[in-house]
């Protein structure tokens, strides 16, 4: 019993697919010159591996299944690909620290200089008060 509804859906899908094929008409054919240009562009964009490169990759895949195949074209920047996210994070953190220091240091220096001015005024007041006391002591003596 459960197979019957599935067959009904399958039949409906097959008839719908046949109807769509009939509506679509004949398959699209490229002009031979356009086909050649397209194939040349694909060949330039995705060059075929040389036999030596394919052989090296195959050997690496067979001997060490848990390691990615080596880059045959040269050093290939394999270590750079691995460390690039870390370099980006370190650079971002350094930039953030520089920005925070640039914003906070002027305010720290202003607070320090304000505190120094307050202390200097207190010293001047103390000196002035001492001078007045001494002057009044001379006058009375």
How would you describe this structure to a colleague?
By secondary structure, the protein is an all-alpha fold. It has a domain at 10-63. The chain contains 4 helices and no strands.
Report the end-to-end length measured between terminal Cα atoms. 128 Å
Total E-strand runs: 0
Average pLDDT, to the nearest integer?
Answer: 78
Spans of at least 5 consecutive residues with low confidence: none
Helical segment count? 4
Query: Radius of gyration, rounded?
Result: 42 Å
Largest sheet, strands/sense/barrel = none
**Outline:** elongated
Order of helices and strands: HHHH
The structural class is: mainly alpha
β-sheet strand percentage: under 5%
Kindly state the percentage of residues in helix.
Answer: over 70%
């Amino acid at each position: 019993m459960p197979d019957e509804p599935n067959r009904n859906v399958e039949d409906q899908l097959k008839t719908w697919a046949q109807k769509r094929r009939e509506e679509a008409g004949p398959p699209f054919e490229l002009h031979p010159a356009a086909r050649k240009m397209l194939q040349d562009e694909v060949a330039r964009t995705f060059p075929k591996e040389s036999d030596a490169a394919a052989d090296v990759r195959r050997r690496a895949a067979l001997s060490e299944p848990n390691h990615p195949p080596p880059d045959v074209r040269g050093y290939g920047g394999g270590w750079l690909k691995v460390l690039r996210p870390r370099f980006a994070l370190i650079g971002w953190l350094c930039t953030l620290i520089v920005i925070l220091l640039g914003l906070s240091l002027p305010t720290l220096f202003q607070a320090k200089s304000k505190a120094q001015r307050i202390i200097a005024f207190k010293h001047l007041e103390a000196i002035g008060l001492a001078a007045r006391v001494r002057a009044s002591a001379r006058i009375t003596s």
